[in-house]
Amino acid sequence: MYTSSFISDVFTSVASKYDIMNDAMSFGLHRLWKKQFCSLVKNPGAKILDVATGSGDIAFGLYKRALNLGLTPDIIGVDINPAMLSLAKVKKLEKNITCGLDFMEADSTDLPFKDNTFDYYTISFGIRNIPDISEALQEAHRVLKPGGKFLCMEFGKPCLPGIKQAYNFYSNYFIPKMGSLIAGNRDAYQYLVDSIRAFPDRKKFLSMMQAAGFKISYGRSLNFGVASIYEGYKA
């Protein structure tokens, strides 16, 4: 069992290479997945909370989507790790964004927002890193407005014969090696592999969403189950 402090240290240590490693590990597919994920926010001009925002990819994607649709963004990206947040803040300066998007440090299991605040809650490749997933889901439900939408994208475990074996081989041998070569931290990327394995399967995660109060929830696979997108609504 990985501790909260270990997980924090992992992301602090790999922050400077985080975006490069994402491209290398997914062969760039994560960009397509994130674009599809952002498209599920039908009203990007609504009030949006992006949790475990990391370097801000989803927050920036939603900001751009809002502008492209002629809408005014109202997005907050939160993360518990200061090193990751600093990446997002630097990107914000580089993009010359002065309003409509803010980043702040916050714990996903104890969010500093009132009940019924947001129209959308998004979290991409971050929920498996939260020690108490059930508590994070309850917080997501709490801060969403009635009728608000929960969107989660997370790695999965392919089930199709052949693809499953190839994916396991890639995960076991190549991801830790890339972590060592690119980020200089094999242990951090071994944690990545272990955290994906430990994440609940789709049926279990959907039941956790329902237990947190989401009345309508379902999931869809990306690339044969390498990743999944989950949607839920607050009644």
Automatic annotation (TrEMBL):
<dbReference type="GO" id="GO:0009234">
    <property type="term" value="P:menaquinone biosynthetic process"/>
</dbReference>
<comment type="pathway">
    <text>Quinol/quinone metabolism; menaquinone biosynthesis; menaquinol from 1,4-dihydroxy-2-naphthoate: step 2/2.</text>
</comment>
<dbReference type="Pfam" id="PF01209">
    <property type="entry name" value="Ubie_methyltran"/>
</dbReference>
<dbReference type="InterPro" id="IPR029063">
    <property type="entry name" value="SAM-dependent_MTases_sf"/>
</dbReference>
<feature type="binding site">
    <location>
        <position position="124"/>
    </location>
    <ligand>
        <name>S-adenosyl-L-methionine</name>
    </ligand>
</feature>
<keyword id="KW-0474">Menaquinone biosynthesis</keyword>
<dbReference type="InterPro" id="IPR004033">
    <property type="entry name" value="UbiE/COQ5_MeTrFase"/>
</dbReference>
<dbReference type="GO" id="GO:0009060">
    <property type="term" value="P:aerobic respiration"/>
</dbReference>
<keyword id="KW-0808">Transferase</keyword>
<comment type="function">
    <text>Methyltransferase required for the conversion of demethylmenaquinol (DMKH2) to menaquinol (MKH2) and the conversion of 2-polyprenyl-6-methoxy-1,4-benzoquinol (DDMQH2) to 2-polyprenyl-3-methyl-6-methoxy-1,4-benzoquinol (DMQH2).</text>
</comment>
<comment type="pathway">
    <text>Cofactor biosynthesis; ubiquinone biosynthesis.</text>
</comment>
<dbReference type="GO" id="GO:0032259">
    <property type="term" value="P:methylation"/>
</dbReference>
<protein>
    <recommendedName>
        <fullName>Ubiquinone/menaquinone biosynthesis C-methyltransferase UbiE</fullName>
        <ecNumber>2.1.1.163</ecNumber>
        <ecNumber>2.1.1.201</ecNumber>
    </recommendedName>
</protein>
<keyword id="KW-0830">Ubiquinone</keyword>
<keyword id="KW-0489">Methyltransferase</keyword>
<dbReference type="InterPro" id="IPR023576">
    <property type="entry name" value="UbiE/COQ5_MeTrFase_CS"/>
</dbReference>
<dbReference type="GO" id="GO:0043770">
    <property type="term" value="F:demethylmenaquinone methyltransferase activity"/>
</dbReference>
<dbReference type="GO" id="GO:0008425">
    <property type="term" value="F:2-methoxy-6-polyprenyl-1,4-benzoquinol methyltransferase activity"/>
</dbReference>
<feature type="binding site">
    <location>
        <position position="79"/>
    </location>
    <ligand>
        <name>S-adenosyl-L-methionine</name>
    </ligand>
</feature>
<feature type="binding site">
    <location>
        <position position="55"/>
    </location>
    <ligand>
        <name>S-adenosyl-L-methionine</name>
    </ligand>
</feature>
<comment type="similarity">
    <text>Belongs to the class I-like SAM-binding methyltransferase superfamily. MenG/UbiE family.</text>
</comment>
<keyword id="KW-0831">Ubiquinone biosynthesis</keyword>
<feature type="binding site">
    <location>
        <begin position="107"/>
        <end position="108"/>
    </location>
    <ligand>
        <name>S-adenosyl-L-methionine</name>
    </ligand>
</feature>
<keyword id="KW-0949">S-adenosyl-L-methionine</keyword>
